[in-house]
Amino acid sequence: MIATSQEGNVGGYSVAYGREDIYFPVYVTAALAAIFLTATWVTCALYWLALAVAAAGFTYYNIPLLETGRPTIGANQYGIFIQAFGLIRWRAVERIDLVQIAERAMTVHELQIALNAPIGSALVADWRKRPAYRLMMRLPWQMDHRGVVRVNLEPFDRTPDEIHRTFLRMWRYYRS
Hints:
The chain is an alpha+beta fold.
């Protein structure tokens, strides 16, 4: 078993959020929040404060997208790790699928990791308890009622096919 409690100390293959122009709105809304807050202070009108809070809330929720150097998902000899979720042991993984989902005018790629064990025994390290200041921030994962962990692969710095192929290769190697 692994005795790590730090998310950053996992080693192996890791993928971080990519640095692209798509995250430009996060910077824009941060600037808008500052402008609206200044307008509230100068004019003493509370409607500017409501706009400032909305813009600051959007920025706060999306801050993890700006953490491009921090490993978000990956795998090592112990299993698959997902930021703010934990380290899933290889034997608890039933299958790893790459699913294309049509959303409006685009296609989103999602990595679906089906578990064959309850979450308590599937996790080698549990990172679901987060610091208070990160509680309302974006998570890279979702879990459905069937025990499938879903990770949207669009914001990452590697292609969805490469991530899926690498996870599959490591899963086949380490589970045997």
